[in-house]
Amino acid sequence: MTEGTYSTGTRIRELIVTPIAFRDPPLLNSSGVHEPLALRCVLQLVLEDGTVGLGESPGGSARLERLQTAAKEVVGRDVFDTTALLAAVDDALLPSVPSSHERGWTTSAIEVACLDAQGKLTGRPVSDLLGGRVRDAVPFAGYLFHKWAEHPALDGRPAAGDSWGEALDPAGIVVQARLMHERYGFESFKLKGGVFPPEQEIAAIEALREAFPDAPLRLDPNTAWTVETSVQVAERLHGVLEYLEDPTASIPGMAGVARSTGLPLATNMCVIAWEHLRPAVEQNAVQVLLTDHHYWGGLRRTRELAAVCEAFGIGLSMHSNSHLGISLAAMTHVAAAVPNLHHSCDTHYPWNAADDIVRPGVLEMRDGAVRVPTGPGLGVELDHAALDRLHRLYLESDIRDRDDAGYMRRVDPGFEARLPRW
Ligand code: GKR
Ligand code: MG
Prior knowledge:
The protein is α/β, with parallel strands linked by helices. It contains 14 helices and 17 strands. The chain has helices at 61-74, 82-93, 100-122, 126-129, 170-184, 198-211, 227-237, 251-258, 277-282, 299-311, 325-336, 349-352, 384-396, 404-411; strands at residues 12-23, 28-29, 32-33, 37-47, 52-58, 137-139, 142-145, 150-151, 160-161, 189-192, 217-220, 243-245, 265-267, 288-291, 315-318, 365-366, 369-371. The strands form 5 sheets. It has a 7-stranded parallel sheet with strand order 7-10-11-12-13-14-15, covered by helices on one side. It has a 3-stranded antiparallel sheet with strand order 1-4-5. Helix 1 crosses helix 2, helix 1 (61-74) crosses helix 3 and helix 7 (227-237) crosses helix 8. It is globular, with a radius of gyration of 21 Å. The protein starts with 11 loop residues before the first strand and ends in an 11-residue tail after the last helix. The structure holds D-glucarate (GKR) and magnesium ion (MG). Magnesium ion is lined by residues 220, 245-246, 268, 319.
């Protein structure tokens, strides 16, 4: 299509990037603990006819700066010319951002905003623009974390608790899973591990199995274990877990574990860019890939990734990080349009939903699933008052980059984020 074919109304007038901060509970992981505020960037892609496409990206100073660079690149381009537009953004970032994975975070957020705008212009949901949905609701897993009861009092801030309470042992994890089930109806669970010695985390999984005899379970220690420890845990939990996620680091490390166990291994850490697929397949390092449109370059690229996984017999699940409703909507649309989604998707949403920046009503987590929005675009509406409030919270806070280890050290000065730890 030549440039002249487009209507001027579909040209991009402006990309507004708003950094925000929202409350996050003290969730523990192998790097430390979540700070009281998590960061995201909200994108509003404004077209000449006034249509606005929404996007959401992880925050942090480097990602914010890249989005601001990209904002200059997209002005004047046609919103339907997405392939060329994203290539231009990628080219603009290339000199300063050599990692294709890192550039993927920026192009993805912009692609989602373009698709939202395209959906609004055509009156079709984003899932239709991805080929149509093959399911009306997308299943998610209850994402369990060891956690403190409250954020400690620091810097003159009072201690801040939440409605989930403490979970520092297997019994606490089961209580949390029951709450997740009661509040959202989750039928499958993922436990974030790498916090306590493997023996305790095996006990937590066994306690979950007893409490939920039929629920698919998974465990993710974020590379806290050596190959040897990973093999031992895999032996103990074979037949209990549906998969073991990132027990150890790197493609060769995961391949070493895979050679000694029949338990499927999953990753969102060692296969995070296109160039990782070939060695992972050659070494049979992973049997399940956790996709994440936020860094695989967008929703269309995620569909393409799903096709590659299908070709190589790799199962598909979905990764998440602390996020809000624009991301949840995008995750739901793409998950609905991927036929070979084999597992329920991850989501942090229950931990952060109270601070959402989209209006309530569309994205309800019910029976462990989110119904695919059927309105135009992503189907969600920005709550401008909530966006302003969270932007002010960002400006007033001194958090500019996620630092789980640094925050942990303020509470436990001897903490070392050493991996593998066991
Ligand atoms: O939120 O602490 C966390 C998680 O550990 C997150 O940072 C991971 O990226 O959820 C993620 C995972 O599955 O590895
Ligand atoms: Mg993971």
